[in-house]
Structure formats: structure tokens, C-alpha cells
């Protein structure tokens, strides 16, 4: 499945109990009749649970009405499915109970037990824990992806800094060379200073007066 489709379907997923073949469940389904809406309850045996991913998951419920078998295929995360209650659980060895279509009366009975309120509460707590784990795993995955992207950008910045430093080192002359050039200029521009004694200075002044 494409990642974009998975992201869109993630917002449509609902909190539903775990359903398996052999469970007797009660489905509260929303029915629209013109401008009116009502809730229809359909109670029966789950004979198949589809292995679709995300919103494509579905299940098949079968019940006997006036001696006639009636089956419904319902999407697990449909907005029209308001509530799903698990009433009984039976131990079966098959994932698809199609053989129940050919049975009636006592032969159609399964070894099952009623689900208590405590078991329902445990199932709800387990589902909440699974949802929290899935959310935490998704957050961790997004964080790792963001960190990996940030690490790549940081490496690029470091490499750019190294390149700039190399350019500066090539273009900028060394300090010793700069000092030597300055001293040479001072030597060429500064006039020479000659040390003379006081007698020579006095002799020059007397010569000028004459």
C-alpha cells in the first residue's frame, strides 16, 4: 500500500474490539431512510474475518431468521458501524466457518462461553494499550526521520565551513609576511637620522653667521 494512502486511512480507523471466527457478536449498524436515521442491531456468528489492511478490513456475520440463513459482510472501520459487542467466544480450528452454512439445529452448535463484563473491560484496556503503542512507534519513527534529515544538513554545513576556511587560508597572507612588508616600507619611506656631536652643530652655526 502506498504511504500516502496509508496516512489517509489512518485518520479513518476506529477503536474496535478484536474479532475472530467463532465469536458471537452484536453489531449496531446505522441505517439511513431518507432524512431519518435509525440503529439496527444484527446479532450472529462470525464465520469469516477478512485480512484486509486499514479500512479494507471486513468480517462476515451469519444468523438464522425463520429457518433461513442471513449473512452480512460489514467493513470493520465503517462509519455506519456504531458499535460492536462480543457476546460469546467459541474455540474453532478454522479461520473460515463456511461449513456452518450446511448445518442446522444441534449440529450447528459450538462449544462457547459467555463473555463477562470483566473480560470486556480487559479487552478494551488491551486495545487502548495497542493503540498507544502504535502511536508511540509512529512518533518515534517520525523523530528518527527528522533527526536523520537534520544530521545530513549539519554535515553539509560543516563541509561548507571547511571550504570557506580553506579559501580564507589561501587568500589571506601569513602574519609574518605582512610584518616584513610593513617594515620594508617604513625603511624606504623614513629619512635617515644622522647622529652629530655638539661641536659639529656649533661649527655649522658659526659658518652660517659668517
Notes on the structure:
- The chain is α+β, with helices and mostly antiparallel strands and 210 residues long.
- The chain has two domains: 99 residues, SH3 type barrels; 56 residues.
- Helix content is 43%, strand content 25%.
- The chain is built from four helices and six strands.
- Strands 4-3-2-1-5-6 form a six-stranded antiparallel sheet, with no helix packed on it.
- β1 and β2 form a beta hairpin.
- The protein is rod-shaped.
- The mean pLDDT is 75.
List the helices and strands and how they pair.
Blueprint: H1 3-10, E1 24-33, E2 36-49, E3 58-65, E4 68-75, E5 81-90, E6 112-114, H2 117-171, H3 175-189, H4 198-209
Antiparallel strand pairs: 1-2, 1-5, 2-3, 3-4, 5-6
Low-confidence stretches: none
The DSSP helix count reads 4
Portion of residues in beta strands equals 25-35%
Cα gyration radius (Å): 45 Å
Level-1 CATH class name of the largest domain? Mainly Beta
The coarse overall form would be rod-shaped
Q: What is the CATH architecture term of the largest domain?
A: Roll
Terminal residue distance: 116 Å
Element order: H for helix, E for strand? HEEEEEEHHH
Outline the biggest β-sheet: 6 strands, antiparallel
CATH topology name of the largest domain: SH3 type barrels
Counting DSSP E segments of at least 2 residues, the number of strands comes to 6
User: What structural class do helix, strand and pairing data support?
Assistant: alpha+beta
Helix content: 40-55%
Q: Roughly what is the average pLDDT, rounded to an integer?
A: 75
With strands numbered from the N-terminus, the spatial order across the biggest sheet is: 4-3-2-1-5-6
